[in-house]
Amino acid sequence: MAGDLIYLSVDEARDLLDRREVSSVELTEAHLARIEAVEDRVKAFITATPEQAREGARLADERIAAGAAATFTGIPITLKDVLCTRDAPTTAGSQILRDFLPPYDATAVARLREQGAVFVGKSNTDEFAMGSSTENSSFHTTRNPWDLARVPGGSSGGPIAAVAAGEAIVGLGSETGGSVRQPAGFCGIVGLKTTYGRISRYGLIAFASSLDQIGPATRTVADCAHTLGAIAGHDPADSTSAPVPVPDYRAALTGDIKGLRVGVPREYFDQGLEPGVEAAVRQGLRVIEGLGAELVEISLPTSLSGLPTYYIIAPAEASANLARYDGVKYGLSVPRGDLLATYLATRRAGFGAEVKRRIMLGTYALSSGYYDAYYVKAQKVRTLIKAEFDRAFGRDDGADGRAAGVVDVIIAPTSPTTAFRIGERSDDPYAMYMADVLTIPANLAGIPSVAVPCGFADGLPVSLQVMGPAFAEDLILRVAEAYERSTDWTARRPPLDGAPREAIVGSGV
Amino acid sequence: MALTDEQVEYVATLARLGLSDEERARLREQLSSILGHIDRLRELDTSAIPPTAQVIPLDPVLRDDIARPSLTLEQVLANAPRSENGFIRVNAILDEE
Amino acid sequence: MAVMTAPGTTYETVIGLEVHVQLLTRSKMFCGCSADYFAAPPNTHVCPVCLGLPGVLPVINRAAVEAAMMTALALGCTIQPDNKFDRKNYFYPDLPKGYQISQYDLPLAVNGALEFAVGGETRRAGITRVHMEEDTGKNLHATDPATGAGYSLVDLNRAGVPLLEIVGEPDLRSPEEARAYLTTMRQLLRFLGVSTGNMEEGALRCDINVSLRPAGSGAFGAKVEIKNVNSFRAVERALVYEVERQRRVLDAGGAIPQETRGWSEERGQTLGQRSKEVATDYRYFPEPDLPPLKMDPAWIERVRGRMAELPRARRARFVADYGLREADAALLTESRAVADYFEATLDGDRRPERARLAANWITGDLFAATPDREALGDSPLTPARLRGLLDLLDAGRINRTTAKQVFNELLARPDEDAAAIVERLGLGQVSDDAAIRATVGRVLAENPKPVADFLSGKAAAKGRLVGATMKALGGRGDVAVVNRLLDEELARQRGG
What we know:
The complex is a heterotrimer. Helices cover 36% and strands 12% of the residues of chain A. Chain A is α/β, with parallel strands linked by helices. In chain A, strands 1-3-2-4-6-5-10-11-9-7-8 form an eleven-stranded mixed beta sheet, with helices on both faces. Chain B has a domain at 5-42: Histone, subunit A (Orthogonal Bundle). Helix content of chain B is 35%, strand content 7%. Chain B has helices at 5-14, 21-38, 73-78, and strands at 83-84, 87-91. In chain B, β1 (83-84) and β2 (87-91) form a beta hairpin. Chain B is flat. Chain B starts with a helix and ends in a 6-residue tail after the last strand. Chain C is α+β, with helices and mostly antiparallel strands. Chain C has three domains: 2-299, no CATH class; 309-425, no CATH class; 433-495, Orthogonal Bundle (Arc Repressor Mutant, subunit A), CATH 1.10.10.410. Helices cover 40% and strands 20% of the residues of chain C. Chain C is built from 16 helices and 16 strands. In chain C, the strands form four sheets. Chain C has a nine-stranded mixed beta sheet with strand order 2-6-7-10-1-11-12-13-14. In chain C, α7 crosses α9. Chains A and B meet through α9, α10, α11, α12 and α13 of A and α1, α2 and β2 of B.
């Protein structure tokens, strides 16, 4: 029955496929039907790709029959529309790329395609990944499957909502300032931001080069481990990708965290946390303690400067990364009398308000007379933020690994609040930026962090994040999965199937 | 940090962003407000701190000097708004001979 | 800052050159497209990276960095142990990403010098810095035949080709010096094999900075930048014009504003730019897609070890080791192709006579027969085949006259070596006394007047007799033997 074929884990689907109980075509059709059924409410996709999916499923079945299946052969996946795909338009959520068809696949996409993964569609994103709610998509706003009047979070709201709604088994999103963890938290699923350089950025439409990372969005930690294993690893096409070996992340999920030292940073609990959020996270910490971990209160005061630091560095890099969108070589072009007028008109028509805001901010921060006070200053504060984490993990020079106060991982809430209502923060940019105050420090420090659901507040998902030292994805996934085993949060499903159509806010939005 | 209209216009020109009067006014307000939050960074003493050059230190991996196939002309021009005889066509740049 | 002076002031010309060099790598600076773009149809050497598509990333070409390092070392620069790339941000159709990856505040190398000869003297000009960057594409101007409106056509083949920027100190003092500096720079680049240095093809580009100041003043005058000089001759002409232009303005009591002017080849003038350009704020910041380069000393030494011997050093060695005259050594080290050819011909033979013989044949007959000396390495007359000719000369199998014939045959028939040619054409030298004596006898009998002239004291008449004997021998006579036997015979006649 098609309904039984959604909400499977990767391991479950793999098992059914390999035992030939279900074909990839059947599995894919079930997901395409699910997309049909819920998309009018969830609106996770920009471009659904059913024909490519069916063809992919067919080929996957042949491969499975030949006994040559890999982990992701025949598994339905959605890709955030900032990932270049050679067989589907890639818009970055923007009008300026609305008809753009890349001649190549992003490396992470190619690695999954090589495994025979089935791509069901390009999913929604805040324009150029700039946003915390997916409301900045120039196409439409995606809804939170748990409450269709609320945002799914952003910028990876599309793939995360799709996975939460059962429209795909796995999603690939991207992070610059929390854009996988925060929506994963709002939608009750697992979202991972890796160490900077763990996953190749080649083919990820750039927002902020020193921060961007692709991030798996999945319903279970094991699925996250599988996805990471498939796409991580050095890429000669990305000079910032790390030549660090890729361990077996799935095998790292031993369930054992006895004796682990868990840092609890007091500043992360001071950021205007909703009471329900704090309660759920603290309860999660108690569970983790019950599994044998030791909670250690720590202080990361410089993390409080993360938000302003980020809002200089990210827009500055973005202002340069988005200069290529000029209507000359590709993308939207609004021709006027001369070249300058064409540039101005094209970029005016092609970019939305948030993108313009950030380009302006970034250009200003790099401009003569302001570069030292803003860009250089922010990069110095970044050094401080990173150093603080290094000290906390005992990774700074000359550190004694087990000195007092040194911890193995750090756990904090993912966001100060649960999902807010659509339109609630659209008028106040900085209020919107505040949604990422707890996620941004890990991006600035380049360290990995995984968000996992830890309860509900007023019926909306709450999430905690597990941060670790660079390249310790195996450790943070182990902690996350051990916690997951002791709870049933990742087994919860949004009430989509019973949700009345009247729950859609403001028709035409 | 309050921005003037002239500053906003100058930055918009640098960034090749055409702005309506309304947009310029709104941006002036919003950017001034955001910069106000950002100016908090001045409170931190970073005089002895180096700016982050690489968040995860890496040695550069250099590429061997081997020529590889390029895109076909069709591929290069496939997304081009305007082309002519294999060239990409654009409007004239003013003040050039 | 303006310099205002009284008429009749003597001025000193202050010139600094900024040279952009296209490196001769197989692939581009940051992607694998072929860098050999010059004759290719438009937009056929373009990939997602150099097209600046969304999502692409640069990867540094090791050979380009090494060519840059080698050039920096040859210019005596200090290579900076940590250097990095930066983004230079501006909008232009030939700049796909909307920024150029270049080096700003931490360039590859600083503080070098270039020695060059001008007017029989050696001068030395400082090199401020050497840095790497990527080239832009090309913009061609076109006019719509229907409307007359101008538009542009963009070819991105050149976008991403590796460039070296070499900034010279303002140490040059005349247009002639500037030209000599450039010529020596190009020779050096060709010797190193890092560039063709060909200005006509755009492999070498030059921007000029020139100002005047009252002689003896230490201060610098307002600097005028001249762009669009596309040949060495244009560099010299533009400078001559501009120096004169500035002198006139200053003499008339005017001031020279700091500006950029374009050289117009057709008008023979530098022209001010029409629009008043606001200096562009390039908003340089470190390139986040590329980790900083670490110039490991062992790597620098490896590059230094591979560096070709520089022209001046090679010329000095030719004089010292082979006893060549300065003039010959200079000719033979004008280009690496010629210098390599010369030494290949010697093949380790250190005898000065052989060196001189080889030098004469190369700078004489071979140069005359080879219009493009740079391509000497491709000549069918290989060093080994030339050596065959020289060996026959040394062995007395042929003389200078017949050697010329053999030389021409060597050029015309790439498959035959010198000995075979001599055999085939029967050009072997006649050295046999008896044969030559008989011919001498006949020549003397047939040329009574020169004999009489010689015997009456006109020594020069003997030359005619030598010539006639050689001719009678079909040019194959051993000249030494001919001379000896003629002397004997003439002496016998004199002595009665």
